[in-house]
Each structure stands twice: as C-alpha cells, then as structure tokens.
Amino acid sequence: MNRLLDVWKWIDDRSGYSDYVLPLMKHIVPRDARWWYVFGSATLASFIVQVLTGICLAMAYVPGGDQAYESLKFITDQAFMGSVLRGMHYYGASAMVTLAVVHMVQVFLHASYKFPRELNWMSGVVVLFVVLGMAFTGQLLRWDANGVWSVTVAAEMAGRTPIIGPALSHFIMGGETVGGSTLSRFFAIHVFVLPGLIFAGVGLHLMLLFRHGVSEMPNRDEPVDPATYREEYEARLKKTGVPFWPDAAWRDAVFSTVVVGVILLCAVFLGPPSLDHPPDPSSIQANPMPDWYFWWYFAVLSMLPPGLETWVILGAPVLGFLVLFCVPLISNRGHRAPSARPWAVGIVIAGAAAFVALTIFGYREPWSPDFGVPPLPESVVGVDSGTVAEGAKLAHSKGCLYCHHIDGYGGHRGPELSYIGDELTADDIIIRINNGGYNMPAFAGNVTTAELSAIVAFLQTRKSKDVVTDTSG
Ligand code: HEC
Fold this sequence. Notes:
two-stranded antiparallel ribbon; elongated; Cytochrome Bc1 Complex, Chain D, domain 2; Cytochrome Bc1 Complex, Chain C; binds heme C; mainly alpha
C-alpha cells in the first residue's frame, strides 16, 4: 500500500498534477452559468470524436487518385466498424461546425467577448475558420463527384484573386486541374496542417479561459468597466462562485455525452453519406452538392450578377472573417445584457433567418443542375413528331434541361433558352453545344451529328412569336 502511495507521489511530483491540473479542475467559476455554457465543451468533445475517428479512417484510406475511391468503398463495405467510423466522422463534422457556431452565438449574445476576454473571442474566430477549412478539405477526400466539384469551385474562387490568383489556384489543386496531386495535397492539409492549427488554437483558447475566468451571466446593472471589472469579478466569485469540478462541469459532461451519443446513433442508423459516382469532371451526371453547411454560400453566389461574383466570391469570406475577428475591438466595454443590446439580438435573428432561407434556396436549386426535370410537354414544343420534336426530346435526354429552362421547364444553372432562336444563329448554337462554355460541359463527343442538328432545329424554333402562337393555340 505504502509502495503504491510512493509511486503516486512520484508521478504527482514529477508531472505536476496537484500543482497544475487539480487547480484547473477546482478553479472557482460563477454559479449562474448553468446550461448556457455547455456548447464550448461540447465543441471540444466533437473535435475529440473527429480526431479519434479520423485516425482510424486514415489507417485504411489511400490518398491517391486511383485508389482513394476504392479504399473508401473498402472502409464502408468491408472494414471492421468502417461504416460506423465513417458515419461518425461525417456527423461529427456537422456537429462540430454547428456547435462551434452555436457557442459563438451564445458568447456574442452575452457579450462575453468584452474586456478582458477579447483574445478569447479572437482565437475562437480563428479556430472556427480553420474548422470550416477542415469541413471543406474533408469533402474532397471523399473523392466522389461532389467533392471534386466543390474543390473546382473553390479553385475557381482562388483563381480570381488579383495578381496571385493563378499561383494560388495552382497551389490548391497541385496542378492545373483537380487530380491525384490535389488529393495528396488536401490529405496533408486535412490531417496535418489544419488539425495542428486547431490543437494550437484550442490550447490558446483554453489557456485564456483559465486566465480570465468564465464570464458570469450578463446583468443589466453590471456593465463592464475595464478599470474596475477584474476586482468586481473576483469579489463576486468569492461570494457566489463554485468549483468548476464537479459543480459546473457535470452539465458539460452530460451535454457532451448526449452529443457524442447522437453522433453515434446517426452513424449507426443513418450511415455515412453514400459515395456517389467516382469523379469525372467532364461528366454532367455529377450531382454537385457540397455538404449542407455550405449550401447557403453557393446560393448567394448563384444569385449574384456575374460582374459582382468575382468580388463577392473572394471578398465575402475575407470580410466575414475580419468583421467577426474585430468584434471586440469595436466595443469591449459597457452593457453585456442582451436586453440592453437589442441590435445584437437583431443581428443574430437576422443572421439565423438569412441562413435558413439561403440554405433552403441553395438546396432547391438554382446554382445546381436540376436532375429531376420532366421532358418538355407538347404544349411547349408545339409539334409531336419530326425533327423538332426529336430535338426537344434530346434536350431532355442529353441533359440540356438540367441547366436550361424553356417556358418554365428545366433547371436554372445556365441561361434561359425560351427565345434562344431570336438571339443565336444555328451556327452559334452548334459551336456552343460542341465547345461548352463557362459552367457548361462540351458536348462534342457526346452527341452525333444527327442529334446535334435535331437539337439545333428545335432551339431555332424557340422565338418569342412562336411562344405567342403556342399559348394561343
Ligand atoms: C451543367 C449545366 C449545363 C448543361 C448540361 C448544358 N448547358 Fe448550356 N449553358 C450552361 C451555362 C452555364 C451557359 C452559359 C455559358 C457561358 O456564358 O459561357 C450555357 C450556355 C448555353 C447556350 C448559349 C445561351 C446564350 O444565351 O448565349 C446555349 C445555346 C446552350 N447553353 C445550349 C445547351 C444545350 C443544347 C445543351 C444540351 C446539349 C446544354 N446547353 C447543356 C450550362 C449548361
């Protein structure tokens, strides 16, 4: 018995457990924090899930152009627990992004970023953007059409940077196009670079948490005055504080357990996202859908007039980061209570509403091809046999309608073709179909000469006066 005690004393002395770890666990926190404060620790818990499942996945995953897809199939279908691990890593990513944002919103609403916790907030914002980087690079590692397409969009974004654009997009893709070397690059970033940054960022974040203490629930009668805040905080803690462990931490433990449980249940019952087709950047069958937390952004991009796109594509993420990062610099004193900061509540409500609306919009279309379009009915085509009718059928079967709409039928990825006969000659249309364009695949190898002339014959009938006769008849 004594021996054991000696061993423990040795470990305790050499490691500093009693001197460093215990005080952290036992440090005094405000009593009133309660359930509001569980989101930060739950974000950390989901990060730990990501690290553990990520390591397991990396043991079987091959970051090579030809084998990545195969190795994921192996993990999903054959490896021991592979499907559950992939699922946990997938839902864990959603959980981490969601919880990090909820945590940030809570801190913003309670203005916990004010003096002396400005750096807590700023380090948190940096970590949030790195987490989004993780979510994004992770999508490519799935190496299916979705991932490849998302990265193509990102590379295009980066390519528009003034001066350094081409070099930047070359760096992201590891070459001129998305290919095997892109995958190696993203793998290195996803498993070494960004996790390293997150560990460092979270470490700093936690250190600052202990340095300045957990903020109290905001109180209308106690606005923050940097000159006196620290003393007042200490005095209040003395009166009403409780030790972090176990008085406050049990709520964190309960909530984190629920979060991990939900991630596990989703993984078991919903399973990992199915791998769609292996990537083929020229294939129009690719269903270009990034993970849900990015839909709103693609919706925004789709609504912009082309002239503005460049600026927003590039500027929005940078501006978003700067604005968030600088929040404590804009105001670090005064009221913390939401009731005294109605504009803060307004920002959160407006932001949430915009997010929901844009997400729904982004999910529905219009930036993505619509693969569910029906063929054109005869009322639109005008005839039910002959070359023109044949061309109308081909416009559906060849996928033109995925992206183009004609009299209300079809997707909105490309321009409307209802009156294209007024605008382009047969030759123009042939050139366009053969060569494709910006966001339109080239069809040269995909249609026969006969099919091509049928499509062109049909499109040539799309004139505004035809439409008038159509609706009258
Ligand atoms: C993946 C989406 C997509 C598919 C599939 C697609 N297009 Fe397009 N198409 C576009 C986009 C985007 C543009 C605009 C390109 C540009 O401005 O460079 C476009 C432009 C055009 C134009 C020129 C329109 C104008 O107003 O100048 C024509 C004509 C056209 N497409 C016909 C077709 C036909 C015919 C098919 C089927 C064989 C087809 N497209 C398939 C996305 C698509």
